[in-house]
Amino acid sequence: MDASGRRVLTVAILASFVSFLDGSIVNVALPAIREDLGGGLAGQQWVVNAYLVTLGALILVAGSLSDLYGRKVILRVGLFGFLVTSIAIAASPGIEFAIVARALQGIAGALLVPSSLALITTHFGEAMRGRAIGAWTAATSGAMLVAPLIGGLFIDFASWRWAFLINVLPIGVTLWLLAGLETPDVRKPGARVDLIACALCALGLGGVVFALIEGSRLGWGDPLVVAALIIGVVLFAGFLLRERRSAEPVMPLDLFRIRNFWAGNLATTFVYAALALNGFAVVVFLQEAVGFSATLAGLASLPVTVIMILGSSRVGRWADRSGPRMFMTIGPAVMAIGAALLLTAADPFDYWWQMLPAIVLLGVGLTLTVSPLTSAVLGSVGSGREGIASAVNNAVSRVAGLLVVAVIALIAGGDLDLDGFHRTAIATAALFAAGAVASWAGIRNPRQREEAAQAARTGSPPE
Predict the structure, then answer these.
(1) Is 122 in the same domain as 202?
(2) How would you class 415 by CB atoms within 10 Å of its CB: exposed for 0-12, middle for 13-18, buried for 19 or more?
(3) Whether 141 contacts 320, CB under 8 Å
(4) CATH number at residue 123
(5) Which of 112, 217, 276, 297 has its CA 20 to 30 A from that of 76?
(6) In terms of domains, do 424 and 285 share one?
């Protein structure tokens, strides 16, 4: 990798880093936010999901904007927006202000991940793409997993508010590197962004999430909950119908005719729903039920970070050679076993025997899964559509997390005490197992498919 490639990769990693960092810090900050600003479990859910609603809906627009205006322009706008909203969250006077600021931060975050991945896929050729995506995966996943530790230190020794200002330095460095990036930008002239479709998607998701969160508090038969659910479903159905008829859709439905694309996104749904459920449940359980400090709760997931940093780049190269199917099947299966081991948590609690084995298996499984999954989805689409393909896959992962966090009170049967934590562990294991099945049944190795087609043409057996 030459100097230009290293700079492109660094920019892509740092731009995504701030989004993943903040999205993970919030979990460990939830107990402190609840104590300071109030809001109860529903308030904690909204602090997480306000970000995910706008991010999940508008990340599709970001993919189109990235293709239309260029990756570097959209990255720059997203970074400035993320900086301003991070400061606003840190200054929140109440829970309602924090929720609104998180929703605005989701808009900025939506601009970062698809554009950074598209920057990688358009700059690097096939020979280097897997390695670059592997490095991106290791770094961004490391940010997502080390964030609870960093946030915990700020929360314990300063305030939860300072945890949201961690982004200032990496955003400044990224903007400086981006200004000196000489690689040409890629644009798609003549494209447009369907704002009506974006509104239908955002309002539809918002209605469904409101019903799922407030249903546990107000009652599932409450007229407000029923109305929000019906309106949300109708609006989201309208979004899909509009996308089917649109000449310039923000989520091209024809992509889902590609086998590895739809299968990869189905696996993404299960795997990232499980990761979101596990991430929320573990840090809240360790602090509110076990009595860990925020720093210790953050340290609990550190082994996952170490394993991913050591292994993701290698796994990316292996998957390039042998195909993603095996890795995408074994990885979630290993994580399902790890989640099942969380059922050993008991009173008195012992992290070393009741949680560490599960955390290690989660790290191994995640390392085997994420880079091959990303490569399988982005590699399945034609050149020039990487931006929107990345956006759709990231939207799927965020919406999966959004929906599962919205129903966490229903899964846990109330607050995350020991019994509630056991219920979330069972649900997490089931979701990971479903991801393994979806990958095995749906994913095909591109190289093997090409060899089979060549064998059919020549009449000789594939190598």
Answers:
(1) no
(2) middle
(3) no
(4) 1.20.1250.20
(5) 276
(6) yes
Tell me how many domains the chain contains.
Answer: 2
Query: What percent of the chain is helix, strand and coil (3-state, nearest 5)?
Result: 85, 0, 15
pLDDT digits (tens, 9 = 90+) for 106-128: 889 888 877 777 777 777 766 67
- Is there a single domain that holds both residue 341 and residue 419? yes
Q: In angstroms, rounded to a whole number, what is the distance separating the alpha carbons of residues 295 and 288?
A: 13
pLDDT tens by residue, 209-226 = 888 878 877 888 889 989
Tens of pLDDT, residues 71-96: 788 888 999 999 999 999 999 999 99
Residue 391 domain-assigned (yes or no): yes
- In whole angstroms, give the CA distance from residue 75 to residue 112: 6
Indicate the length of the chain as a whole number: 463
333: in domain: yes
Same domain, 119 and 207: no
Domain match, 254 and 242 both: no
Tokens encoding 66 = 């990235």
Q: Do both 241 and 254 map to the same domain?
A: no
pTM score, whole prediction: 0.78
Report CA-CA distances (Å) from 309 to 127, 315, 334, 461: 21, 11, 18, 39
In a domain, 454, yes or no: no
Q: How many C-alpha atoms does 182 have within 13 Å on its Cβ side?
A: 5
The residues, any chain, with a CB within 8 Å of residue 444's CB and separated by 6 or more, are 259, 260, 263, 323, 325
Other Cβ atoms less than 10 A from the Cβ of 382: the count is 9
